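S.,

Sequence below, as promised.
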Amino acid sequence: LAIRETIKNLLGENNLMDDAFYSKALNWIVHEDPLTMNAQNPLLLQRFILAYFYFATTVRGPWLECNPPSVTGGSEVCDHSNYGYANRWLSGARECSWHGVTCDDAGKIKLLRLDYEGLSGSLPDGLAFLTALRILNLGKNDLTGSIPVAWFGLPLLRTLILYGNRITGSISTEINKFKVLSSLNLGSNLLSGTIPDALWDLRNLTILDLGKNNLFGTIS
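The prediction came back faster than expected:
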């Protein structure tokens, strides 16, 4: 009960009630997580968010590799074809050792690299709670929907790679809220509309790929 109340207080009860993936993650971390974290652990929220992320990106079935032990019926360790050995997602190991996850010295997630993994579903807005995130690479998957506005509040995000998905909608003018973004790859999606002038407010941006979309306008 303490874990449930802590997460409700951090996210807001409405989120948990309205989002089936948040509810699944809450059930997992309260009843199924082998690690059984303490409610006062400052890293509880990020472990919960990763569970939410897994459920939100398996709407068409499990990932290609490193799925939870409960899905594979195997060990907690996976031998990834490209990246070698890592702990499976939703295993009893610390989330910093799960495949594609890297943490900083304080144990906070700074990198998520899950390209070519068969992720499906809409881009999960809950990643905005990973406020130490610096690199997010979800390229070459089957993700849909628009880029969540909540992501623009990530204060340390420097690299965002979403190429090769089925992302739709326009590029929000709020993209200029990315204060330190230096690399943005949205190529090979289904984006449409005008290329916003707000992109040029990103003073640290050195790499930009918007190719193979339905965007129009000028780049100056």
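The mean pLDDT is 94.

Coffee later?
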